[in-house]
Give the backbone structure.
Amino acid sequence: MINRRVEKGVARGREFEIEVDGEKLRAHEGETIAAVMLAAGRRTFRQTGLRQQARGYYCGIGLCHECMMVVNGVPNTRTCQTLATPGCRVETQEGPGKLEVAF
């Protein structure tokens, strides 16, 4: 597993794992899902619906919507604004994302 975090001189919160597209990634308390993905070397967060073009982290403040992924079954979640939590499941989103509603 790639680790692109700055390690020297940085105090981090408790370590735990999240699952991204079936892969276990190391996360720390206080990190966003986007930060975890970037630290692991993952650059594709979603794909466009029409042309299947890769999209990823861009603005980092929730305005551009490029970092949207499916988090714990909820599509269109802005990962730059969503904290990683122990055991959360994240999936690459394709297109606008669909929320399945059970009746």
Observations:
- The first helix runs from residue 33 to 39.
